[in-house]
Prior knowledge:
Elements: H1 2-24, H2 28-41, H3 48-65, H4 71-90, H5 97-117, H6 149-156, H7 161-173, H8 177-190, H9 195-207, H10 211-224, H11 237-248, H12 255-266, H13 278-295, H14 300-323, H15 327-340, H16 342-349
Helix pairs in contact: 1-2, 1-5, 2-3, 3-4, 4-5, 5-7, 6-8, 7-8, 7-9, 8-9, 9-10, 10-12, 11-12, 12-14, 13-14, 14-15, 15-16
Amino acid sequence: MTGDHARPAEAVHQLFDTVCQSLREGMFPEAIDALERLLERDVEFPGAASALKCAGFWRERMEKDGPLLEGFERGEQLLGQWRLFQAFADRLEDMPERCMFAIKQFVFSSALASYTATEGGFGATEGGFGATEGGFGATEGGFGATEGGSSWAVAEAGGDPYLLLQTGRCFKGAGNYERAIECLERANKESRDDARIMAELADCYSLVNESRAAKVFFREAFYVDPQVIDLAGLESPLVQRLAARLRVKGWREPLLNEWMPVYGAIWGVFSVKREMKPLEFGKLKQAIYHLERECGKPGPERERAVPRLINRYFWLIDHYMTTGEPRERIDEVLEKLRETDPGVHEEYTS
Length: 350
């Protein structure tokens, strides 16, 4: 009797294995067929109904849009569809983690293969990624199963920081954080002060438990431009816990991004700091002057200007403390902070 019960249960789990393998290979009609057969055998199988909806999401997009684009444009399309899918999947409470991971593997491996497969490089850009034999395919073996694949990718990217950024995102999405860091470090050297690149680099450092480097780059990224940071695309628990706490306080995108560095400083998340260079200090003072004027104007611009000004007050205080400025200067900034937002002043000084 026990064996009779075990065989149907084993068959159901084998079907689920087939589902995950089909999703990983982008075979969405086959995944749907397996899920329907699974549900016929066990209508209450955990997450099967949600997985069916997700497979349907991707089948529809593959059939509608898949054949229309290739190369760089296809890679861009896939990453854009992944962002839409994230929002879709977030509404499903019981999406199986294995299925989500399998779809993620397909999307990011396919996007990287698309970026690297275009003859002559990424679309119309010069010096972009060219196609090479044994490159980064979405087939068995994953991302260029040959050793040295990432070095080739970085070298062939030329000096295009955006292409390096997208390649780094693909490596990260596939779980290859070391290679992602290699691409993103190169991108950061080619394009200083790009908040998108620094945020992705920080994310990867966090995912390999390099917390000090992660905190440095997150702090820099949210200082430069919070609005260009793809918060939903960041996987670091460091940042996602901070965002979750701010959502509890009532903040929502896009202002949520602006308040991230403020509370990252107050709650000790962005705690690793550096001394500013003289030119940076001059730009900081100019930014504070400009933002103070913006905060004096009513309207939606003030909502964005207030957290940016507060964050720059924090940077100014840190600079004064690092360089050993008299206490009076710090107190002057703290007084300006109190006038701008008494609640934040209280949390910061308590």
